[in-house]
Amino acid sequence: MTVELIQIGKKDTNNYEQCLQDFGYTNLDNKVQEDVIEVWKFFCNEELVLRGLKRFVTTYFLFNQEEKRSLRYFFDHWGNKNHFNNPTSSEVSEIFKTSTDFQYPRHTPILHGELTADLFNNVLLKNGYLAADAGAGPAHGKWAHTIQFFILEEARKEGVFQLHAQTVCQFIQTISQIKGMFESLSLWNILFDSFDEHIFTSPNNITKLLTSSWDSSEAAQFLAAKFNAYEEKFDRIAKDEKSYGGYTKQKYLRRLNEARYIFYKETCALLWFAPKNKEEKGNNKAVLETGCAFPLEV
């Protein structure tokens, strides 16, 4: 059994509980299961996702009005205001190589390579980090998962749906520690990293929409241009370097001396680059303090 996209104005007829059982999740804690279904329903609901993405592009556009700011700068500040990037652990497994005197930073890491399950679940997600997935490529999107978190948390705060978990961050931390029958069907894969081409549990669908002409507003066009420029740069560097990982190598790995990092062998890593200290002012400060610069009903 599969779940379907609930188009605008249509009734939700998906049997989420049966789908969970089909995927091997027959003994979930009742509250966790209810939260999983709430998140799944959200990403199957076209109207709610479009509303959330509209909110995101508008918030980021307003954030950039007085001074140009990167998405990493934006998400660092939004995340800190919304319970993300606040690590709960101080230990790092001996199987990993770290930078000297490593301590978990409180800002957004860059992902290099395909993370091992241990590094992904027990370091990145368990500590509630947002992430810039630089190595995933433009189709997946560097920021797709973090955008999923944004639209979920803003909708939760608005009362669009309710969770037993206190925050979306806490929910993600919880599911990161739940193992399913099949490694490829973790709750993370089902809710945030699926290959379903018709619903927004697929990060590719988030990115595909945001780089299209889905919305005629200046805010949507501004972000689409930014994402399309990233795709052109990624592809150009990959061609020049003759490597799909050329972008990450050129932009980040050559600056390891500036970073705190956790490596697994030489294949994958989390890289934290210290954010630039710039004075927050005017409209930018208002956006950061509230998490949104326009009324909740929009």
Automatic annotation (TrEMBL):
InterPro entries named among the record's database cross-references: DUF5636
Instruction: State the name under which the record lists this protein.
Output: DUF5636 domain-containing protein
Going by the entry's taxonomy, the superkingdom of the source organism is recorded as Bacteria
Pfam families in the record: DUF5636
| Annotated ranges, domain DUF5636 | 29-220
